[in-house]
Structure prediction request, 94 residues.
Amino acid sequence: MTLPGVFCLTKKWPKMPKSIEKEPKSFEAATAELDALVEKMEAGQLPLEESLAAYQRGTELLRYCERVLADAEQRIQVLTPAADGTASLKDLAE
Prediction:
C-alpha cells in the first residue's frame, strides 16, 4: 500500500525509448532539426512521452553538432607570422 503523494520505490519506471533516428546528413540538417524540436517543446503542446523523446533526440543532435564543430576546429588552419616577416600555415591544434 502506498500513501497518497508518496512514490512507491519498488515500482519500475518505464524505460526511455532508444532513439531510432539516424545521424543527421549534415551539421545544417542537425541544427534545423534541433530548432524544430525546440519550437515544439517551447510551445508546450507535446504530451509527456513525446516531450521526453524530443529532449532525448535534441541531446543526441547537440552531441552530434558538438562533435562536428570539434572536428572542424581541429582542421582549421591559422596564418602565423614568422620572424622573417613571411607567413606560414599551421594547424590550430599545434
Q: What stands out?
A: Strands lie at 77-81, 87-91. The chain has a mean pLDDT of 79.
